[in-house]
Amino acid sequence: MELVVAKIIISPPSKTSVTLTCDLTDSSEVTDYEWVQLISDLNGSQSVQSVQKGISLSINTESEENQGEWACLFYGKHGILGNVTYHIHTMSGLSGHKSPGFSQSTAAVVGLGFLLLVLLLILAQVYKNHQRRKRIFQFPALETIVHTNSNEREERERNQEKK
């Protein structure tokens, strides 16, 4: 009897795909390799889905259906000799992917931009009012005429309401 150590070698490490290779310390008795995906459901039961035969398997790690547990089964003349498993992380944070949608920093930038726009509009209105008052005060006679006309109009309106 001989102890054989099995492991999965990952190469090349990339963001989108990975190649898994079944490596044994002594593969002289091995006649065939098979890669299967172990699928777990919410009840805790597992099902096995055969993927391909061969010593290596290429997986797209961005695809959610490829995430989970993978096993390399190795066979001899009289049946299965053993297996070795590898787990691909199912959480996007562990594999370095960002979730789609707005992040908090994007929302903060949009909010600050909107606030800045509102402040600029208010400042523009204040400046416009200041310039208008400045023009009127340059001509005191014009100011008197404008106020006199508006005062007379208000007086006439009050008199008409009383009648």
Q: What are the main properties of this structure?
A:
Immunoglobulin-like; 7 strands; 163 residues; single chain; alpha+beta; 3 helices
CATH H level, superfamily name of the largest domain: Immunoglobulins
* Biggest beta sheet attributes: 4 strands, antiparallel
Helix content: 25-40%
What do the pLDDT scores average to? Answer: 81
Q: Structural class, judged by helices and strands?
A: alpha+beta
Q: Specify the CATH architecture of the largest domain.
A: Sandwich
- How many β-strands, per DSSP? 7
- How many domains in all? 2
Helix tally equals 3
Question: What would you say this structure looks like, in words?
Answer:
The structure is a single chain. This protein is α+β, with helices and mostly antiparallel strands and 163 residues long. The chain folds into two domains: 6-90, Immunoglobulin-like (Sandwich), CATH 2.60.40; 104-162. 38% of the residues lie in helices and 34% in strands. It contains three helices and seven strands. The strands form two sheets. Strands 4-3-6-7 form a four-stranded antiparallel beta sheet, with no helix packed on it. A three-stranded antiparallel beta sheet has the order 1-2-5, with no helix packed on it. The radius of gyration is 39 Å and the shape is rod-shaped.
